[in-house]
Amino acid sequence: MKKTGLFILLGGLLLAAGCQNSANRVENADKVMTPNIVNDKRFVTDGFLADRLKLTGIITSTTADDLLRVQITAVNVRTGFFAQMWSGMTRENPYPIQYKFTWFDKNGMAVDSIVSTWKDMTVIPGEEVQIQSVAPNRDCKDFSIQLKEAN
């Protein structure tokens, strides 16, 4: 009887591993783009989020209307058998997050804008996502982004 319970447990674990929802990626090895990479400064208050969603880069450009555009690249690093199993049991697969951009003028003052609201996003394990925003006006010269787990 003990062996039957063990086989059922192992079968359940294998089934959970077979139900993984993750992403693979292929990209151009010979990059032809020249992104404007931004050095960033991070304030981490949620280590749990930081261990799941790794921010891998920030780039900027300007639109045709001379507005600042920002793109944050992040990867859900919750991959592998045990991480997938735990994420499945806690219903964090896919991983729900929220983000909010805040825009600043040349004096460092926050600019009130309707684009500075929390937005929802889900990220599956292994997935790389780009989070973008465009400044609400030409006076915006800088930005910050906040990320949190969605409730």
The CATH class turns out to be Mainly Beta
Q: For the record, give the distance between the C-alpha atoms at the N and C termini, rounded to a whole number.
A: 42 Å
Q: Give the low-confidence spans.
A: 14-18
**Major sheet size, sense and barrel closure:** 4 strands, antiparallel
SSE string, helices as H and strands as E:
HEHEEHEEEEE
SS summary, helix count: 3
- Number of individual domains: 1
Q: How much of the sequence is in beta strands?
A: 35-45%
- Going by CATH, the architecture would be Sandwich
Instruction: Write down the CATH topology.
Output: Immunoglobulin-like
Cα Rg? 20 Å
Shape: elongated
Structural class: alpha+beta
What share of residues is helical? 10-25%
List keywords for this structure.
151 residues, alpha+beta, Immunoglobulin-like, four-stranded antiparallel sheet, 3 helices, elongated
List the SSEs and their pairings.
Elements: H1 2-18, E1 36-37, H2 47-52, E2 53-62, E3 68-76, H3 81-89, E4 95-105, E5 110-111, E6 119-123, E7 128-134, E8 140-149
Structure description:
With 151 residues, the protein is an alpha+beta fold. Strand 2 and strand 3 form a beta hairpin. The protein has one domain: Immunoglobulin-like (Sandwich), CATH 2.60.40.3230. Strands 1-2-3-7 form a 4-stranded antiparallel beta sheet.
Condensed summary:
The protein is an alpha+beta fold and 151 residues long. It has 3 helices and 8 strands.
